[in-house]
Design goal:
The structure is a single chain. Helix content is 52%, strand content 12%. By secondary structure, it is an alpha/beta fold. The protein has a 5-stranded parallel sheet. The protein is globular, with a radius of gyration of 18 Å.
């Protein structure tokens, strides 16, 4: 487990988690993005990538040896059984790598941050002491994701349906950051939370 207090930062697809995480990073907070780790554990040469190719077929591997993420995403969101198989393979591997990366050397702050879209849907929430939810209306999530990834509305809605409902995510939050408001207000919210966490965890709360 991390040597530091761990704050979980989550939100639905297209909510702007990475933007908010970078704001915490600008304040000196060490953060680990579960999406980045999920990519790292299936890089060419990893056991996880070999298992995925054995299960889905070699066509899931691109000519450069990397995983065809778009093809895999389409397969798993069209078939819940395939999604469950993939999650059973990857989640334990991702969890161990997250724990390793959440203990930086030569770090002065009392807390680190785990950024994960599936924080509440998986046992990753067991790694954190508090949960911060980045929140925007669902229509904003859909529009941002369609623009960012070039996905169809139908595909984005399937991804949303596979995630925890917005209301349930908000209920589990210790703090909510409204990322539909102007950027300066979001930055102010991040700064206020940072000061609160510094005070709380410096005192061992």
């Amino acid at each position: 487990m991390s040597r530091y207090s761990v704050i979980g930062l989550t939100g639905g697809i297209g909510s702007g988690k990475s933007t908010v995480a970078r704001m915490f990073g600008a304040l000196g907070v060490h953060w680990v993005d579960a999406d980045d780790v999920a990519r790292q554990v299936v890089e060419p040469g990893t056991q996880a990538l070999r298992a995925i190719a054995d299960h889905f077929g070699e066509s899931i591997i691109q000519g450069n040896g990397e995983l065809d993420r778009a093809a895999l995403r389409q397969k798993v969101f069209e078939d819940p059984e395939q999604r469950h198989w993939l999650e059973a393979l990857l989640h334990p591997i991702i969890r161990q790598e997250l724990i390793r990366q959440l203990s930086p050397e030569d770090y002065d702050l009392p807390y680190v941050m785990l950024v994960s879209p599936l924080l509440l849907e998986t046992n990753q929430h067991e790694l954190v002491e508090r949960i911060v939810v980045v929140d925007v209306p669902e229509e904003t999530q859909i529009n941002r994701t369609m623009t960012r990834d070039g996905n169809s509305r139908e595909q984005v809605e399937r991804i949303l349906a596979a995630q925890m409902p917005r209301a349930a995510r908000r209920e589990k939050a210790d703090a909510i950051i409204d990322n539909a408001q102007p950027l300066e207000r979001v930055k102010a919210s991040v700064h206020a939370l940072h000061q609160r966490f510094l005070a709380d965890f410096s005192q061992g709360a």
